[in-house]
Amino acid sequence: MSGSQYDPVKDWLVATYRDIVGEPSRDGEGTQKPAVGKFIPASPFAAAGAALAVYAPQLAITAGGSPELVSAADTLHAYQWPLIAAAAGLAACDVARYRIHLHRQVLDAHVRQTTGKAPRKITVAFPSGLRTIRRATIKLPRGTVIQPKELEKFTVAVRNTLGRGTTAWELKVRHEAHRDRILVTRETIEPDTRSPRHKALQAALGDTAIFKDPKVTVAAQDEAGVETGYRISFEKSMNAGAKGFQIKVDEALASLAGAHESGRNWTTDWYPDKGHLIMRLVAPMPSRVDHPLELVDENLRHLPYATGGAERTMFWDVSTRSNKPHCLIVGPTGGGKTSVIRTLLTEAARRGIPFVGVDPKMIELDGLEGYPGCGAIIYDAVRAAMFVRALHSEMMARNAYIHDMKIEGSQLPLMIAVLDEFFILSGKWQRLLKTGDDETRDQLKELDPLGAWADLAVLARSAGIRLLLGVQRPDASLFGGASGNARDNFGTRISLGNLSQDGALMMWGDSTVGREVDTSVAGRGIAIGDDGSPVDAQMWWTPNVDRHPNKWNQLSDSEKAIIDGLAPVEAPGFTCYSTELAEFIQAERALTKRAREHHRAAEPVVIGTGTDAATTTTAPNADTPQTADADDFADVIPAAGVEAGQTVLIDSEDGELVPVTVDAVDVRRDAAGDVVETVLTVGAGRVKTRITFDATGVVVLPEADRVPAAV
Question: What does each C-alpha distance from 450 to 81, 386, 455, 598, 700 come to in angstroms?
Answer without folding.
Answer: 117, 11, 9, 33, 18
